[in-house]
């Protein structure tokens, strides 16, 4: 099921992780990686078995985290049954500490700008564009009408230049966000500082930053092993898969791959799959 894309063999990656479990970590993107892609972002829940696998892994290694563009409150709701899983939302601009959402101090002052931007998007763009107002981020979805991609991209480029914002392209979505130096790569780099093994699972362009962060760390520290797992999909193309050590075909396969990891720990069986 897992396909090796590089010299690293899956069994080697697993045994090296088990051998250094106290200094190992697993990091997961959410949408398209451990959750299905759907028309309505609000209707998305993790694939069957994902929450249980992440919680199980969190008992076995130093840390497990979800690193997503979703708001931290959304992640908190979806992972309420996995209290040991760390949650980083809005590309690291939010995190959940002791059950409370904390927002990055540099990003927070941009809230009024981003709220106004969401209102402008709703009034200036065609009604078929779904405006997802995430308080500090505005996501403009054209999944319902893919032919609106050009109009959405032009509007975003214009607004980014006018307001000094950053653009992030994704799966039938363009996002505008404050110009703070946080992304999935900076989160993973910081969170894996004390680790010698770190796995990252992703499906989209923004996940490339996390893959790059692991590569960079490997280059600086020969004792460090990064493991990149891509969830293949036609929308992102093969760009991420080419950078990955292993690929799975769809989010529903991620828990199955995690079963292979979990069952390698002494005395462990994977959590039973509810699906
Ligand atoms: O970092 P992620 O957790 O992968 O979040 C990336 C974006 O995911 C969501 O959009 C994507 O999934 C939607 C639901 O399946 C789908 O309708 C949309 O076309 C995809 O782009 C989320 O709604 C965005 O806010 C995230 O930026």
UniProtKB/TrEMBL annotation:
Q: Which Pfam families match?
A: Trehalose_PPase
Question: Keyword Magnesium: yes or no?
Answer: yes
Residues forming coiled coils:
none
| A Gene Ontology molecular function term of the record | metal ion binding
What's any GO biological process attached to this entry? trehalose biosynthetic process
UniProt keywords (A-Z) are: Hydrolase, Magnesium, Metal-binding
**Gene3D superfamilies reported in the protein's UniProt record:** HAD superfamily/HAD-like, Trehalose-6-phosphate phosphatase related protein, domain 2
Which InterPro entries does this UniProt record tie to the protein? HAD-like_sf (IPR036412), HAD_sf (IPR023214), OTSB-like (IPR044651), Trehalose_PPase (IPR003337)
- Known cofactor(s): Mg(2+)
Q: What class of enzyme is it?
A: hydrolase
The EC designation for this entry is: 3.1.3.12
**Domain of life here?**
Bacteria
Pathway connected to this protein: Glycan biosynthesis; trehalose biosynthesis
Tagged with keyword Hydrolase: yes
The catalytic activity, as recorded, is: alpha,alpha-trehalose 6-phosphate + H2O = alpha,alpha-trehalose + phosphate
As for what it does, the entry says: Removes the phosphate from trehalose 6-phosphate to produce free trehalose.
Database matches in PANTHER family: TREHALOSE 6-PHOSPHATE PHOSPHATASE
- Indicate what this protein is called per its UniProt record: Trehalose 6-phosphate phosphatase
- Source species: Nonomuraea zeae
Upper classification of the organism: Bacteria, Bacillati, Actinomycetota, Actinomycetes, Streptosporangiales
